[in-house]
Amino acid sequence: MTKVIGHRGARGLAPENTLAAIEAGIGAGADEIEIDVRVTRDGVPVLNHNPFLQDNQGNDMPHVRIHEQNYAELLTRKDSLATLEEAIRLANRRMPMIIEVKPKVHISPVVKTIQAFLGEGWQPGDFLLASFSQRTLRALHRELPQLEPIVLEHISMVIARMRAKEVGARRIGLNHHIVWWGLVSAVKRGEYQLSVHTLNDPRKARRWAKRGLYAIVTDYPARIKTALAEDT
């Protein structure tokens, strides 16, 4: 059965990368939840997609860059800004969490946060580490080799395979715009597990699931789960 992954929590149901979005994704039946992580100037891993902050209404604040501000300063501008620690505690092992670490992010605070939870009894399977940056993914894999890596790639499956081989990854994530049914079928027959992002079209989801697609990253987990269930 094709997995359904909540994108940035479930950004179609609640403001992205917030605790509310994570809870919404869980409530919508997502098999896994994906979040984006950046690190503040004072070393706090927080949930944010862009290098700059978005306010509570989702408006961009290009002059407020995450890595240039302390966490307390960012909270004065966005009181819903969640930390990675808060996100993990909220999810509380109800499903695996895909932690996408953005390029050029200082990984040490992210690693320490995850190690602390592993020390409390969380299991390696509770987390997956993903990045579009091979340098970042290599560093994460070196520090947390027991966690499964996911290669996220913008351009091609060929490059993705090369990157995956380097870090021992089985899972690869591609933009759905560069994926076609033949590729889905070919990957299914091979050694990798392919996910596509960000796919909100139920009809395409059904077609590709029939071809053996491993996972779909979506803003609307319940919508895609319902569509896939129609063919079972």
Summary tags:
TIM Barrel, two-stranded antiparallel sheet, 232 residues, alpha/beta, 9 helices
Structure commentary:
This protein is an alpha/beta fold and 232 residues long. It has a single domain, classed as Phosphatidylinositol (PI) phosphodiesterase (TIM Barrel), CATH 3.20.20. It is built from nine helices and eleven strands. It has helices spanning 19-27, 71-77, 84-91, 108-120, 134-143, 157-167, 181-189, 202-210, 221-229; strands at 3-6, 32-39, 45-47, 52-54, 60-65, 97-101, 127-131, 148-153, 171-175, 193-197, 215-218. An eight-stranded parallel β-barrel has the order 1-2-6-7-8-9-10-11, surrounded by seven helices. It has a two-stranded antiparallel ribbon with strand order 4-5. Strand 9, helix 7 (181-189) and strand 10 form a beta-alpha-beta unit. It is globular, with a radius of gyration of 17 Å.
CATH class: Alpha Beta
CATH H-level superfamily: Phosphatidylinositol (PI) phosphodiesterase
* Overall shape: globular
Q: How many β-strands, per DSSP?
A: 11
Instruction: Please describe the biggest sheet, giving its number of strands, its sense, and whether it closes into a barrel.
Output: 8 strands, parallel, barrel
Unreliable spans are none
Q: How many discrete domains?
A: 1
* Structural class by SSE content: alpha/beta
Sequence of secondary-structure elements? EHEEEEHHEHEHEHEHEHEH
Considering DSSP H and I runs of 4 or more, what fraction of the residues is helical? 25-40%
Q: What spatial order of strands do you see in the largest sheet?
A: 1-2-6-7-8-9-10-11
Residue share in β-strands: 15-25%
Radius of gyration: 17 Å
Report the CATH architecture. Answer: Alpha-Beta Barrel
Mean pLDDT: 96
Instruction: Figure out the total of helices.
Output: 9
